[in-house]
Amino acid sequence: MSPPAIAQNVDLLVTHTTIAAGADGIKRSTEFSERMVRRENQVWVERVVPKSWHSAGEHAHADKAHKHLDVAVAARWITQDGAGKLRVRLASKEDKVLVDVDKTDFANIDFDGSWFAAYHLIDPAALKAMKRACKKGDLTSYLSTDKARQLRVVWNDRLQLPVLVESVSGASSKKTVVEVKPPGKTLPWQVTQQYTRKDYSDYLD
Predict the structure, then answer these.
(1) CB within 8 Å of 15: residues ≥ 6 apart
(2) N or C: which terminus of the chain has fewer CB atoms within 10 Å of its end residue's CB?
(3) 142-158: per-residue pLDDT in tens?
């Protein structure tokens, strides 16, 4: 199936924050951001990593003989053809490689195989199981509460994606905040035309 007709091309900054409450009484907070570019049948998701945190020089000199692909940092490029078939690739700026990932290896890169979840950040079908709380302009809030977890989604009906996903389970919580950004001058996957092509299996021992 194709995405809903009203879904639009969009550039996003997606920030994920997790607070985990440990049995030792310590709360640990983790936060990271991703850049997402959505164009018709293509989705590009790339971790935002400050240059000073993970330089190409450090990576190159760590082990010249290594066969290594940083799955967490590599950009994920997902496309869907007219027949609904997905193609998933990982793009590494540091190594200048574009890696094809077979369906059998989706789990290794933490991809569940859902085009709708990739395209809309969450599968819109999940909203059907939630209670519609209120609507204001383009935004509709949905709630779901059970004994284990409280879930809140603020959905942008025009863009067909959430602007907020927040779940609370006891003293632990997860929050995803989505911001619309101006489109870039070029599409991120255009640079991969110069990359070396590889298969994910090339990195398996």
Answers:
(1) 31, 32, 33, 34, 176, 177, 178, 179
(2) C
(3) 999 888 899 999 999 99
As a whole number, the mean pLDDT across the chain is: 90
Q: How far is 81 from 87, CA to CA, in rounded Å?
A: 8
pLDDT digits (tens, 9 = 90+) for 42-95: 999 999 988 777 555 455 544 544 467 888 899 999 999 999 999 999 999 989
Catalogue the long-range contacts made by 186-192 (C-beta closer than 8 Å, 24 or more residues apart).
187/37, 187/39, 187/44, 188/35, 188/37, 188/44, 188/46, 188/75, 189/42, 189/44, 189/77, 189/91, 192/77, 192/89, 192/91, 192/98
* Dihedral sign computed on CA atoms, order 56, 60, 61, 63: positive
Taking the C-alpha atoms of residue 167 and residue 170, their distance in angstroms, rounded to an integer, is: 10
